[in-house]
Structures are given as structure tokens and as C-alpha cells.
Design goal:
The protein has one domain. The protein is built from 1 helix and 8 strands. The strands form 2 sheets. Strands 2-3-1-5-8-6 form a 6-stranded mixed sheet, covered by helices on one side. The protein has a two-stranded parallel sheet with strand order 4-7. Helix content is 13%, strand content 26%. By secondary structure, the protein is of the alpha/beta class.
Length: 145
């Protein structure tokens, strides 16, 4: 599941469409306590859950950010949803807001447990390469350094 937080007061639900859904109703994940900012959002896809985005499983994170490749077919809707997500985050961050996001899957643990933090420099990121890494915390910045 994707959980997002920001200090932007923007109502992200106004950006909901057929690819991406923002909801203030957070699922009961311990990892939500690791979000840094006051405005917290669940980020869903066309499927209602967060499955309809580009993801790498824990064991594949070393592959990093990359464009979709022919040898690893991805749903065009997942690619579009991910592009919309990163576009919205880029826009919010460029306005000066702080944004972070956690990709965590439902489990029974009452303890927040992530495998790492990823610093995402939006000023140098090619949007088509962005994908989520399972069980990681993403920190977005709009400028180098």
C-alpha cells in the first residue's frame, strides 16, 4: 500500500481520476507512524488498492529506477498511474512543500519495519523511470542537494 504525507494543505482528492485515488482514510499499517508530515493520504490505483502502480519487490530493489522494458511487461495503466503520481508529487514539491511516501504491504506486525529510505531528487529524475520499491520510505526533493 502507498501512504503519502506532505505539509501541503492541498486537497489531493481533487486530483482523483481513473488512474489514481487519494484518500484521507489510511489503512491500519504500523508504517504510517513513519510518515513525516501532517497531511496524510492513502494512494490507490484504478483497482482501489495500490497494486496498479509500477513496483519492484524487495529482492529486486538493486535494479533501481528504470524505464519499462520489453522483457518485463508492465500494464500500460500501471505506467500511466505511476506517471500521474510522480507528476503530482513533482508539482507539490516545486511549490515548496515537503513530501514523503511509504510503499508497505499489509501484514500483521504492530511494529513499523522498512528496509530502507530512498532519496528522490525530482530535479534530475526522468519521470518514466520512477517506480516504487516494496517496503521503502521515499523522501522527495525538488532541487539538487
Amino acid at each position: 500500500m502507498l501512504l503519502l504525507s506532505t505539509d501541503s494543505p492541498e486537497n489531493l482528492a481533487e486530483r482523483n481520476d481513473e488512474y489514481i485515488i487519494f484518500s484521507r482514510e489510511l489503512p491500519p499499517l504500523a508504517e504510517s507512524t513513519l510518515l513525516n508530515y501532517s497531511n496524510k493520504w492513502f494512494v490507490g490505483s484504478r483497482e482501489g488498492c495500490s497494486c496498479g502502480f509500477r513496483h519492484l519487490y524487495i529482492g529486486s530493489v538493486e535494479l533501481g529506477f528504470r524505464e519499462p522494458e520489453d522483457w518485463y511487461p508492465e500494464e500500460s495503466e500501471d505506467i500511466e498511474a505511476t506517471l500521474r503520481f510522480i507528476s503530482i508529487i513533482r508539482e507539490i514539491a516545486e511549490k515548496g512543500a515537503n513530501v514523503d511516501c511509504i510503499d508497505a504491504w499489509g501484514h500483521t506486525s504492530e511494529t513499523a519495519n522498512l528496509d530502507g529510505t530512498v532519496q528522490v531528487d525530482l530535479s534530475s529524475l526522468n519521470s518514466r523511470t520512477f517506480r516504487f520499491f516494496e517496503n521503502h520510505h521515499f523522501m522527495f526533493t525538488a532541487v539538487n542537494g
